Amino acid sequence: MSCVAVLIPAAGAARRMRGRDKLLEQIDGVPLLAHVANRACAVASDVIVTLPAGPHPRHTCLEGHSLGVVEVADPSEGMAASIRAGITALPHHCDGVMILPADMPDLTQQDLALMLEAFRNHDQAMICRAANKDGVAGHPVIFPTEFFDALGSLTGDQGGRAILRQNHHRLIKVTLPGNHALTDLDSPEAWQVWRSQRVEKPQDKALKSPL
C-alpha cells in the first residue's frame, strides 16, 4: 500500500480574525487545529504541521499528538512558506502528500480516508482534489511525489494553485459530502454563521481526546 503523508499548513497569521486566532477557536471544547490534527493522525502515520516559531499557543494545543512540527521562519509570506517548510520534512518513503488546510472544520476522518482511497485506487501520477457534489473544487489535495520539487519552490500566498492549473489534465476530483471540501472559516462572522448552523455529530465527540 502506498504511503501518503499529511501536511497541515498552520503558520499563518489569520489577519481577518481581527485579533482572534481561528485555529484556536473551540469546537466541542477542542481547538480547531487539534481537531484537524486528530483526524489526520487517524488516517495517516506521517503527519506534519507547520507552525509559527515558538513559544506560541498553537504548539501547546498539539501536545500529546503523534506528529511532526516544523517551525516556519517567514510565515508572513503566506501559504507557500508553510508548504515549502513542510515538504522538506516529509519522509523519503512517501508516495504522495495530502495538503490539508487547518481552517476547514467540516472535513471528517471519513473524508480524508476517502481521499486516500481514491489516490491509491488510481494511477498515482494523478492529483486528487476534493470537490462538492456540484464539482466545485476545494481541499484537501493529494500530490504525487513528482510534484514535491514544485511544491518546495512555491512563493506567495497562492498555495499550489498554479500547479493545479498547469496540470488540470492530470486532476481527479473526489466528491465529499455537502460542502465539506469548501467550508473554511477565516473571519468572526464566518465562525458565527457556522456555529449557528452546526449540530454536534457523534464522531466529533469521539475526537475530543488527542490520539
Indicate the topology:
Blueprint: E1 4-9, E2 26-27, E3 30-31, H1 32-43, E4 47-52, H2 57-61, E5 68-72, H3 79-88, E6 96-99, H4 109-121, E7 127-131, E8 137-144, H5 148-151, H6 161-166, E9 171-175, H7 188-197, H8 202-206
Parallel strand pairs: 1-4, 1-6, 4-5, 7-9
Antiparallel strand pairs: 2-3, 6-8, 7-8
Explain what this protein looks like in three dimensions.
This protein is of the alpha/beta class. The chain is 31% helix and 20% strand. The protein has 8 helices and 9 strands. It has helices spanning 32-43, 57-61, 79-88, 109-121, 148-151, 161-166, 188-197, 202-206; strands spanning 4-9, 26-27, 30-31, 47-52, 68-72, 96-99, 127-131, 137-144, 171-175. A 7-stranded mixed sheet has the order 5-4-1-6-8-7-9, sandwiched between helices. It has a two-stranded antiparallel ribbon with strand order 2-3. Helix 1 runs parallel beside helix 4. It is globular and about 40 Å long.
Helix content: 25-40%
Strand arrangement across the biggest beta sheet: 5-4-1-6-8-7-9
Gross geometry: globular
Mean pLDDT: 89
Number of H- or I-type helical stretches: 8
Cα separation of the termini: 23 Å
CATH superfamily: Spore Coat Polysaccharide Biosynthesis Protein SpsA, Chain A
Classification by helices and strands: alpha/beta
According to CATH, the fold-level topology is Spore Coat Polysaccharide Biosynthesis Protein SpsA, Chain A
Q: SSE order, as H and E?
A: EEEHEHEHEHEEHHEHH
Give the second-level CATH assignment, the architecture: Alpha-Beta Complex
Strand content: 15-25%
Largest sheet: 7 strands, mixed
Strands, total number: 9
